Amino acid sequence: MTLDPDRLCVHQVTLMKQCDFAQSLDAFVRNGIFKTAVWREKLDAIGTQEGSRLLKDSGVDAVSLCAGGFLTSRDPANFQSSLDDNRRWIEQAAAIGAASLVVITGGLDEGDRDLAGARKRALEGFSQLIPEARAAGIRLALEPLHPMVCGFRSVLSSLREANDWLDQLESDSAMAREVLGIALDSYALWWEADLEAQIERAGQRIINFHVSDWLPDTCDLRLDRGMPGDGGIDNLRIRQWIEAQGYNGPVEVEIFSERNWWLRDPNEVLKVIKERCATAI
Amino acid sequence: MTLDPDRLCVHQVTLMKQCDFAQSLDAFVRNGIFKTAVWREKLDAIGTQEGSRLLKDSGVDAVSLCAGGFLTSRDPANFQSSLDDNRRWIEQAAAIGAASLVVITGGLDEGDRDLAGARKRALEGFSQLIPEARAAGIRLALEPLHPMVCGFRSVLSSLREANDWLDQLESDSAMAREVLGIALDSYALWWEADLEAQIERAGQRIINFHVSDWLPDTCDLRLDRGMPGDGGIDNLRIRQWIEAQGYNGPVEVEIFSERNWWLRDPNEVLKVIKERCATAI
Description:
2 copies of one chain form a homodimer.
Chain A: E1 8-11, H1 21-30, E2 35-39, H2 40-46, H3 48-58, E3 61-69, H4 76-95, E4 100-104, H5 115-136, E5 139-142, H6 159-172, H7 176-179, E6 180-185, H8 186-189, H9 195-202, E7 206-211, H10 235-243, E8 251-253, H11 266-276
Parallel strand pairs in A: 1-2, 1-8, 2-3, 3-4, 4-5, 5-6, 6-7, 7-8
């Protein structure tokens, strides 16, 4: 089924190099796009208050703030300081009217080889943020990332594992079900053998859905994502699986692309995204 | 437990750029290493007969021939021709006295977005090779590769999935248990959340064990592996898990490293590998 244009959301990172915060909103509005995911660095560059004002004036909704988390440090002081950062980011997400803060775990500390330990710390960190998130009315969307960034960005590497974590967090805290959810990124998870079954298992936990594509000749572990339709990911099928679980929220196009889309005119990028809505998103 | 030096095996690819087939054997012997995994391209460059003679004369054992498989083509003629290639590679493996042919599935065909279909074809291909492998006395070691090469090299992306495939192949063929096994590569699977449990499940299926390391600043999806001890993989722990299942075969150091180890003197590379046997392998 063709995506309802009102559900299209374009992540600010898709215009990472071309636009600052205000310019990205202008480009979205010019192209009839009224949902975005806010990239924290862009918001910080102008301040939360100014960002909120620009969002309000433009009529663009902030679906989520990206990214929080980073909770794998072995050093207790650093771990606590990351928790404090997240508390600020939760407030920031609330201030811009976002429904969720997308959180990633962070990778391995320098010299750390204890992956299970790093995972345990991130899980503990998320559990500690539940009360603050609830108080602020913000959901924490745990985002498993591709196993290729396990070393440096996310030790949570599959939807299966995200489901396992949520099982545990929900059994430990009565608030977890209300506060926590999953951000499902097709680029991160398309390879997962039982993805359909894990989406079924996730059910209503899926609160954000990010799409991009896997290029056959991809050349970078993080910054070489493709436009939906240009690669090997069946985004339409994945969207079907998610919608079979009742999801009818925004579909976020999130393209990190140092060698292609970040070099193009914003209007051209957004025009292509809108075209792909009819065929590949 | 420190690795018994007799179990150390160095894959020919670890000296990919420095040595041809004969030179790699010379380097191994000079450094007291008497096990290798043969890289098919190096063998083909001199011919199977000459390769066998050199192995015999040097006293270096070929543990396995790498790599066969590549069975994801949607074109029936190409698929059949890949099966024929594998039949030749099985004979070749037998001729050099290897115990196994390491097989990878291959990636997605150009324009293919049906990952489940590609996986099905590879599974079917492996099942068809069982009789020939058995007749030649060669085991087929299915090697799941890292999800980051799912698009272009292996649609089999986890040990869990390899176990699922072997469950199915064993239930379909009485010969499967005898012929098929798994090549476990720590670089490909270190991120897997339930790796220990999947190793337990694999049990005696594990017939090859490859080690290298995940560099914190890694910059390539395939050719930037690190020396054990230089990155985030706990190879010692993974070896313990495998040995708890009864594995006491070769431990193969397999390092694709375009920017570092492939540029160094072979004796230096092998000296470092031997040092790391005491601490990180």
